[in-house]
Amino acid sequence: MPEEENKKEIKSNEKLIAGMPEEELIASGHRACAGCGSVLAVRHAIKAAGKNTIVVAATGCMEVVTSPYPQTAWKVPWIHSLFENAAAVASGIATALKKQGSDTNVLVLVGDGGTFDIGLQALSGAVERNHDFCYVCYDNEAYMNTGIQRSGATPQHAATTTSPAGKLIHGKVEWKKNMPFIIAGHSENVYVATANIAFPIDFYKKVKKGIEHKGPAYIQVYTPCVPGWKIPSNITIELAKLAYKSKTTPLYEIENGVLKFTQKPENPIPVDRYLLLQGRFKHLNKIEIAEIQKHIDDTWNKLLRLEETEVRI
Ligand SMILES: Cc1ncc(C[n+]2csc(CCOP(=O)(O)OP(=O)(O)O)c2C)c(N)n1
Fold it and tell me: Of all protein residues, whose CA lies closest to atom 26 belonging to ligand 1?
């Protein structure tokens, strides 16, 4: 990023950060990898939710690195659920709190594998039943904790251990599942938002809104993974910015079924600038890059049309 632009961004972030609480609710002694995007998401999410919160975490990296018995990095009550039932556990807690007349928040933190695939049934039921919780999916685009297996969130053509880049197949065949829309399609009373760890203030505000929303909230935050994406540990945030600038990760909210962008890149860049910094995409040929670019442009145009027409999802 040019220095001037960088300075401007730091200045505007400083102003907003001034409104954020200083106290960290996840201790610095966790065991996440250097450069882990997901642990930053977890840190900001619990800051936004605040001390009066019960965290539900399904099995995955963020559970493993913050809770190696007999230690914990958590300064708030925290419960580990199975991989498949985090939203069901959260439903039970939210119901009990309601019965007690308690104002304690319920924050659910689950990876994309536990959200897009294996926990989808529990999440779908909980959203449909209108439970009051804020569900944050930290999306590192694969099952990372068990060694980089492809998930429903893995983008097309990305290489993982179960969608390798070889002679016969060239990474994952299918496109990424559109989870925000799947959740938005459940009910008009679900607050849905997408976020990106390169924009922590935007993410913070969305989690706060999700926590304050009466009913279910689903926030999907894009979090680069150093070993999974085969990137150097010092480019996590820069790469996340390139994802935003190349329109790979649109930032929007869906309220009452209506989609609105929260910000748009001023001068979008071609997607290869984002893709080719990552080892998981280094096998891509020109045809595949063009295919990805077309998919991104089509999706972007669809989102613009939805925003313009205010058609309910
Ligand atoms: C029912 C079940 N199947 C498989 C596993 C093994 N497992 C533990 S963590 C994990 C990966 C989790 O992936 P994701 O939800 O994307 O979170 P991440 O590891 O990327 O943080 C898997 C497959 C499990 N614990 N339970």
Answer: 83
The answer, yes or no, to whether any atom of ligand 1 lies below 6 A from the CB of 151, is yes
Contact status, residue 228 vs residue 142, Cβ threshold 8 Å: yes
Closest by CA to 216, choosing from 107, 86, 57, 312, is 107
pLDDT at residue 21 in the model: 85
Cα–Cα separations (whole angstroms), residue 264 to 56, 250, 304: 32, 7, 10
Cis peptide before 70 (omega within 30 of 0): yes
Distance 12 CA to ligand 1 centre (A): 37
Q: Which atom of ligand 1 is nearest to the CA of 110?
A: 15
CATH at residue 198: 3.40.50.970
- The number of distinct structural domains making up the chain is 1
Residues 6+ apart with CB under 8 A from 169: 163
- Parallel, antiparallel, or unpaired for β 251-255 and 191-196? antiparallel
C-beta of 112 in contact with ligand 1 (< 6 A): yes
Pocket probe for ligand 1: among 33, 36, 59, 137, the residue whose CB has the most ligand atoms within 8 Å is 59
**Residue numbers of the domain that contains 146:** 3-309
How far apart are the CA of 137 and the centre of ligand 1, in A? 13
Distance CA 217, CA 191 (A): 5
CB atoms within 10 A of CB 9: 14
**More confident site: 5 or 72:** 72
pLDDT in tens, 265-309: 999 999 999 999 999 999 999 999 999 999 999 999 999 999 999
For a ligand 1 pocket test, name from 82, 143, 179 the mutation site with the most ligand atoms within 8 angstroms of its C-beta: 143
CA–centroid distance, 200 to ligand 1, in Å, is: 25
Nearest to 225 by CA among 155, 172, 294, 156: 155
| Residue 237 CB-density burial (10 A; 0-12 exposed, 13-18 middle, 19+ buried) | middle
